[in-house]
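Write out structure tokens for DNA-binding NtrC family response regulator.
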Amino acid sequence: MRLLIIGSLNGQLTMATKIAIDGGATVTHADDTAVALKVLRSSGADLLMVDVALDIGGLIEKLEQERIHVPVVACGVESNARAAVEAIRAGAKEYVPLPPDPELIAAVLAAVAEDAADMIFRDQAMARVVQLADQVAPSDASILITGESGTGKEVLARHVHRKSGRAKKPFISVNCAAIPENLLESELFGHEKGAFTGAVARRVGKFEEADGGTLLLDEISEMDARLQAKLLRALQERVIDRVGGSRPVPVDIRVIATSNRNLADAVREGTFREDLLYRLNVVNLKLPALRERPEDILELAQFFVRKYSEANGVPVRPIAAEARRQLCAARWHGNVRELENTMHRAVLLARGEEIDADAILMPDGSRIETVARGPAEHAAMTAEAVTRTLVGQTVADVERTLILDTLDHCLGNRTHAAKILGISIRTLRNKLNQYSDEGVDVPPPGEARAYGA
């Protein structure tokens, strides 16, 4: 990560600088916004920490004019309440009071670094893809990552970068579908001052920002044919031409491209260059859809529950059995991205001690769409769901849950419950007395527990 500190904050932000450097980041200082803009045009940055006394609104406006996308964090003494509010209104993502709290600074840097790009998987279909990724990561070969939207193509690209010899160099991502066609060339290759209307100064593009590191071209199938030719030359010659430039600029990068479309079909349709496909597709990492790796569903669901419970300051609840069955039976057209949003919603909607099926909903409050499964597949999915809930629990926890659930099933009838459990009525009563002493809700005879009360 590249951190740029702007203003007279160097001494007060020593802690931020130390934390950033210890985390592998590079730190640059600029006395004012004019110098900061020059730094951004020449080398870019991943985060700006700006003195709240400066004109943050004006800085953000200039960043927008020059299409420089970088988060801004305002910093100042706690008494600068009005300036802090104005900075947030102007577009600053966060306000950090000075002197800085080390934990707060570390949290801000971690959030920007977005190092939550860890690979979370359990299914063998995904394991094979990650194994191949690890095998080719140390090389400089171009990689094409394909798969449906939401399967985690950028997450895998970041994983490859971290496993490569370029891990300490920049990882730069460009979404080719999100940037208008007439701006993408400048975004990728940079431009010289006066190259076009609005080009107020020379600016380096993403190729130069990624020098020494990795450049991710996300959704490359959306790139215009003319730019494809320029990209092909950059990959072959390892040089780029800035818009309006008079001489080539050498670059040392590794290119990873992603696409949710079949590029071979695009070649046949004439919308994608065949020679560029061969250049990019040295290694193809094809991500399976989430429905094709069922063992990952619950693994990822539990990961997102922990993530969003901590983010929203709520207890981490287990996922109830019926909710797990619904998750495993869902179609997941949006893949991991849809699952993440669903579990974020579930964390907010859940009541009681578990995330039950009533919290697994679509954004409009309707039930998630499920697919009918055969008896054998349903049984296998159910067994997987049950097994996953046992991991991490003690034997005593599992025994207590089994006894109380069986008692619920028997509506509090001790004799029937003991018979099903294969224990004596005396042993059952001793266990129930123990649970009551521990403060656990044990139903009286003839009643079941009241969940969510």
